[in-house]
Design brief:
- This protein is α/β, with parallel strands linked by helices and about 180 residues long.
- The protein has helices at about 20-30, 75-85, 110-120, 125-135, 140-155; strands at about 5, 45, 60-65, 90-95, 160-170, 175.
- The chain folds into 2 domains: about 5-100 and about 140-175, Carbonic anhydrase (Beta-carbonic Anhydrase, Chain A); about 105-140, no CATH class.
- The protein contains 5 helices and 6 strands, in the order βαββαβαααββ.
- A 6-stranded mixed sheet has the order 1-6-5-4-2-3, sandwiched between helices.
- α3 (about 110-120) packs across α4.
- The longest helix has 15 residues, at about 125-135.
């Protein structure tokens, strides 16, 4: 079973991430490391589109892809581009607490009502849209999804270091997932 490992000190960073862009990300976010200047991105960050998440990183430090639940499956070309053209060797996959891609079915009625009111859709169209696409974006448990998505990305890109991280919106901090 996966567990969260807090980063309150440099020594808390797992050895495989120390002296890597992933370790730097943890230092910037949690330990208030002084920003360095970057000419080129050092890593790719895949994170949820949730508006409560605000990362503390220097300009030009990372490519960032935001996607519901930090699901990069439908962004694989962008991931490959960052690796192939941007020469990225490190990916941080960041999920968070209270993710709304968990138990999407609980928000089905709200989704349908919102699409009717805000987009001008017919309720039947909004319902079909939800029913056809929500299964692709439902992530189940956030941490379990991050672990599975990390494994998938590691198999897909075997020379790239992929780290699953968890963002706590209340403390604005990242934890490692062991």
């Amino acid at each position: 079973m996966a567990r969260l490992l807090e980063v309150n000190d440099r020594e808390d960073i797992l050895s495989q991430y120390q002296k890597t862009p992933i370790g730097l990300l943890l230092e910037y976010q949690n330990l208030n490391k002084t920003f360095c200047s970057y000419k080129n991105p050092q890593m790719l960050i895949g994170m949820c589109m949730d508006n409560r998440k605000n990362l503390w990183v220097p300009d030009n430090f990372a490519y960032i892809i935001r996607s519901g639940g930090a699901n990069l499956f439908y962004h694989e070309f962008q991931v490959s581009y960052a690796i192939g053209v941007g020469r990225i060797q490190h990916i941080a996959l960041i999920g968070h607490d209270n993710c709304e891609m968990v138990q999407l079915e609980d928000r089905k009625d709200k989704f349908i009502e919102g699409m009717a009111a805000n987009a001008g859709w017919e309720k039947e169209t909004a319902q079909m849209h939800f029913e056809n696409l929500s299964p692709f974006f439902e992530i189940g448990n956030s941490i379990d999804f991050l672990v599975a998505e990390t494994r998938r990305l590691r198999r897909r890109y075997p020379k790239v270091t992929v780290a699953p991280l968890f963002y706590n919106a209340k403390t604005n901090s990242l934890s490692q997932i062991e």
